[in-house]
Each structure stands twice: as C-alpha cells, then as structure tokens.
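All the exercises in this workshop are built on plain-text protein records. The record below serves as our worked example for the rest of this section.
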Amino acid sequence: MLFMKEVPSFRVLLWNREAERVTGISRADIVGRTGSESFPADEMELYHANDREVVERRALVEVEEPITDKDGEPHWLRTRKVPLFDEAGNVYAILGISIDITDERRAREALAGSEAKHRAVLESAIHAVVGSKDVHTLLPRLRAAGASGILVIPVQKLLPLPDHAHVWLLG
C-alpha cells in the first residue's frame, strides 16, 4: 500500500487502491483528512509519533504498525516512511509504503507461544534422565531417596533402540 501525508498536519494526500483494499477505507473518505475519523485514537497517536520521528530524523523510518480495518479487524503492517524535501530542504511530506504482515506476525506469535509452552513443560517436568536395565529395583530406590511424580517411559517407544536399552524419564 502507498500513501503520502502533508507535514506538519499529517493530512493524507495520496491513498492508493491497495491502501483501500487493506483498510477498507476509500480515497474519498480519507484524502484531505488526518485519518482520525477512520482509525482508533491509539493507532493514530502511534502513526503520528512515527511520522514526527521521520520529520525529526529527516530519514527513513521502518516500523511495524497495527491497523484496524473498517470492519474492526486488526492487521499489522510493515511500513517504511521517508521524508520528502522541498527546494529549501524542508520536509513537506511523508511517503509511506506498507505491506500487510498480519499472517507472518500471527505465525511468529504462535511459534513463540508454542516454544515457550514446550520449554516450560520441559523445565518444570524433567528433573532427571536415568538409565537402568531393571526399573523394578530402581523405582523403590528413587522413591526412598525422595523422588516423587516419577514418569517412566521406555525410550524404545520414542526411538528405535535395541530391546535391552532403556532410558527412564523421571518427572
């Protein structure tokens, strides 16, 4: 999506078809306005803070920004904003190019959540890995030593090992 905003008002000057598709907001409804009529206040505060950073730094700024479409559906955009300069060297506008990364961000969040869940399970559940040919004599000794919540899993159920090899997970 491509857009352009006037500085310092941040009124929208350009809004392409992809911007219309992603947001559900037509050019007629946003060009000449700041967007505060179309987007939630917290999003507008973030957009304008990012816009001010572009003007202050006088350089490209790349950010991930949330955006709520016309139907109230949340999306995430990876946005590059660059200042446009007049002949006197003043920033007169900001040009923005965004791509919808909603699916990518959801996948990253799901992966991070899954990794954290599995890490927590492993860190809290496995206290020792013990090998023995005779689990029936090992278990009473472990219980006598104060081990509790013992989980016994023959590794051959998990890995293709010879029948005589056993590893027991205790948790």
